[in-house]
Design goal:
The chain has about 260 residues and is mainly α. About 65% of the residues lie in helices and about 5% in strands. It is built from 13 helices and four strands. A two-stranded antiparallel ribbon has the order 1-2. Strand 3 and strand 4 form a beta hairpin. The radius of gyration is 22 Å and the shape is elongated. The chain starts with 14 loop residues before the first strand and ends in a 12-residue tail after the last helix.
Length: about 260
C-alpha cells in the first residue's frame, strides 16, 4: 500500500520506497565505486543498488578467492615470503578469478557513469514518487536520520547502520557475510583468548585467509550506511519541498532575484 500510485507517465523516477528499503538515483563518483569493487567484488554494485549483480559477485569472490588461495598468497607476500606466495596459488581457480575481477571494476565504473546521466534526466523531469509504503511485514517511509548514528551502529556490528536507515536487502546480505567470516576465521574465539591474556593461542587459532575479508566488510558497512543516510536526507528535503510548493504555495508567488 503506497501513498502515491505509479501511473507510469514518467520516463524516469528518482526514487522508489518499498517495504524492503528506499532505492534512489543520486550522483556517484565513478572512481570511488570502482575502488569499492576492487576492494571486494560486489560492493560497488551494491552501492549502486544493483543487488542481484552485487550478490552474485560477492559469493563468487568468496568461493573463488578461497579455492585459489589468493588471500593466503597475499599474506605470505606481505610477510616477504614470495616463494610461498607463489606456491600456494591454485592456477586452475586463479585464471578464472582475474577476468571476472576486472569485469566487476569496469562494470561498476561504466554503470556509475550511466546512472549519473539517468539521475540528471530524472531530476529534470522531477516526477512524483511514492514516499510511504505499508505492507503486512514492514512499514517504510522517507524520514531524516543522523548520519553519524549510522556510523556508530555500523561500528558495533556491520548491518545495524543499514537497518537504522531501512536498507533491508543490504543489511541481510552483510550479516550473512559477517557470520560466515567470523565463523571460518575464528575471530570471536581469538578475541576471547586475547581478553584472557592468551596472545599466542589467539594468534594461532586465527585463519588469516578468512580474516582478510573482514576489513573490507567493515569499511563497506560504514561507508554505505553513511552515504545512504545523507542521500536519504536530501531526498526527504526535496520531496517535502516539492509537496509544500504544490499544495500550499501561491501560483503567483515568485522569488525576486537580487541584482549585484
Amino acid at each position: 500500500m503506497n501513498n502515491y500510485t505509479n501511473d507510469n507517465t514518467a520516463r524516469r523516477y528518482k526514487a522508489h520506497v518499498s517495504i524492503l528499503g528506499t532505492t534512489q538515483l543520486h550522483l556517484h563518483n565513478p572512481y570511488i565505486i570502482a575502488w569499492w569493487s576492487a576492494a571486494f567484488p560486489g560492493f560497488g554494485h551494491m552501492i549502486l543498488s544493483k543487488y542481484l549483480r552485487g550478490f552474485a559477485l560477492f559469493i563468487w569472490e568468496i568461493v573463488v578467492n578461497i579455492e585459489a588461495n589468493i588471500n593466503l598468497s597475499m599474506i605470505y607476500s606481505f610477510q616477504g615470503h614470495i616463494d610461498l606466495a607463489k606456491e600456494v596459488l591454485n592456477p586452475r581457480w586463479l585464471l578464472m578469478y582475474i577476468p571476472v575481477y576486472l569485469f566487476g571494476i569496469w562494470d561498476c565504473y561504466r554503470t556509475a557513469v550511466d546512472m549519473n546521466r539517468v539521475y540528471l534526466l530524472a531530476e529534470q523531469e522531477n516526477h512524483r514518487f511514492n514516499s510511504f509504503s505499508l505492507g503486512a511485514l514492514e512499514i517504510n517511509y522517507l524520514d531524516k536520520r543522523n548520519p553519524f548514528l549510522s556510523i556508530i551502529w555500523s561500528l558495533f556490528i556491520p548491518r545495524l547502520g543499514q537497518l537504522y536507515i531501512h536498507k533491508i536487502l543490504t543489511a541481510f546480505f552483510i550479516i550473512i557475510g559477517l557470520v560466515v567470516f567470523y565463523y571460518f576465521s575464528h575471530f570471536q574465539e581469538a578475541v576471547l583468548l586475547l581478553l584472557l591474556g592468551k596472545v599466542q593461542e589467539a594468534t594461532s587459532v586465527l585463519k588469516p585467509e578468512w580474516l582478510l575479508f573482514l576489513p573490507s566488510h567493515y569499511g563497506f558497512a560504514l561507508y554505505d550506511s553513511y552515504v545512504n543516510t545523507v542521500e536519504n536526507n536530501k531526498l526527504f528535503d526535496k520531496e517535502l519541498k516539492d509537496y509544500l510548493k504544490e499544495k500550499y504555495q501561491n501560483n503567483n508567488f515568485h522569488i525576486k532575484k537580487i541584482k549585484k
